[in-house]
Amino acid sequence: MHISKNTVRGETREVRPENIGFSRLLSLVFGLFLLGFLLYANTITHDYVLDDPIITTGNRFVQEGFSGIDDIFSHGYLYGFNGKNDQSYRPLVLVNMAIEKQIFGNNPTVHHFFNVLIYALSGVLLFLFLKQIFREESIWLSLGITVLFIAHPIHTEVVANIKGRDELLSFSFMMLSLYTLMRQVKTKQPIWLLLSLIFYFLCILSKETGLAIFGLVPFTLYFFTENKIQTILSRSALFLIPAVIYFLLRMMAMDSMTFGSDMLLINNSLMGAASVSERLATAISILGRYVGLLVFPHPLSYDYSYNQVPLVGWGSWRTLAALALYAGMAMVAFLGFRRKSPVSYSIIWFVVMLLLVANLHPKLMVGATMAERFVFSSTLGFCMVVGWLLYRYLKVGETFASAKLFFVIIGLLTTFYSIKTITRNTVWKDAETLYLSGLKTAPNSARAHNHYGSHLLKKAEVTRDPNLRNQYFTQAIPNFDNALKILPEYGEAEYNKGVCFMALGNIEAARQTYQRILTYSPNYVDALNNLGVIYFNEKNYDKALEYWLRILDRQPRNISALGNVGAIYQNAGDAKKALFYYEKAIEIGPNRNVLNNAIKAYRSTGQEQKARSVERRLNGLN
Predict the structure, then answer these.
(1) Maximal C-alpha separation, the chain
(2) Where are the beta strands (DSSP E) in 68-159?
(3) How far apart are the C-alpha atoms of 394 and 407, rounded to whole Å?
(4) Dihedral of the CA atoms 568, 571, 574, 577 (nearest 10)?
(5) Which of 113, 191, 397, 566 has the fewest CB atoms within 10 Å of its CB?
(6) Is the pTM of this model over 0.70?
(7) Residues 6+ away with beta carbon under 8 Å from 132
(8) How far is residue 52's CA from residue 59's CA, in Å, rounded to a whole number?
(9) Separation between Cα atoms, residue 90 and residue 70, nearest integer Å
């Protein structure tokens, strides 16, 4: 048998390529699939939570099923949800959800099932990729790393949250792209390279962070092939083709390529940094937090919004510890680079996959201060380091006997990870369970308090029992107050508080709440709208008109505001002017209140034919 010599940390180890039989490989693959599926099987019956509606029930293109696919490709990720055509372009995720909607309807169980299925398959694909790059090592190495990755509890947010589908698809296509790339190196067949480029394209269509593969390809070829640098660079350059096509599609579909400078502080605490220095120090400290959660994944939280992760300076122990840690990682990666140490490759993988979500540069700020989903792909780098160090220092060979201690340690880690994963999954059962957990794991997060208050508000709105309804509204208010103590200028929490006051009949408190919002956010549309409603109900039509026209100055296609302005003119006896606003609203989209009012206005002006036409449209909605 051929003998190859791999040098690691100055030592020479004799290792033999694995000649594993197909049946043995199949049983290992099935075992890995089963592990991934069973770990998350208890999420399949979970409900929609958090931001799941963005890609499911709240996305009009997804709700259109197959017929919405064209719109999905021609608009940004959020357009079908909130009409904003900026930030992200992830059409493959929405297409995926539209197909599920078309076939199965709106069913969270189906969406959760496919999340679990894709995660289990991604573990198999990871194993096959690792088997390619570590083909000169015992198969136990690839198996151990894969088991650690599958079981790591930091992945619960991605798998248990339907919206995590973007990460799951992106990682799966990433593994396919790198696997087929290594197959091309081995077989020299061009078809494998073509497949690698196609899978890379699908990866970035799932989530733009998949662009990081472009940085990983040359390192993967350098560390695990004998290709010359020129060959590595020329092959890597081909991956520019899918990236360029992606950006062209993105530019054609979207109005803006970034989040922009108006990102809210509640979304990313770093927006509140007093200086570039403070922002950078905090970002580096967060990078340290990620490593800490990978080493010891407790406590985990669904939210790290303002001010759960406070701003810090260069004197903070977290910043200094993170600097020392990453400097040490850089040194290890550098020292092992020429020797092609797997530890060096693992560190490079970890850092490259984290860079796009690290908030290190003002032009690359993301929509969250910190999130466990951000380290989903980076976790592989951590698992490779742990797996390789155990494998190397325990001198694991080809036989299972030589790998016993290796698997005892891997097994203990996996048991701990699995218990944490299965118990953590239960937190994502439904909105109430998740938001209550946030009050414990993120007590300093304004958003966590607002989420639970909003949940109580929604319960109140759907409750028929008037006493229970008032109880929920009353219980919600202190949660909004807690949010406002953390972030005094938090418009959403203050608006929700005003809604509770209105529902409880405390109109003056609601008025004062909405007016306070306008002192720091003068164009807050929902506050303007409800102030208009308050004055309209008081028959102060001039004042109501003032607020609703302010909305139309900012959002001329706001159907609600157009309909409300029309209602003012209709009440004033000016049906002609009312119809001007109603017709504009109807042209934009259907609204039952507007349609009903338009029918009355047409009939009051003797336009019976138009009234019947609108009536047919209203009946169509019903």
Answers:
(1) 96
(2) none
(3) 10
(4) 30
(5) 191
(6) yes
(7) 179, 182, 183, 186, 224
(8) 10
(9) 13
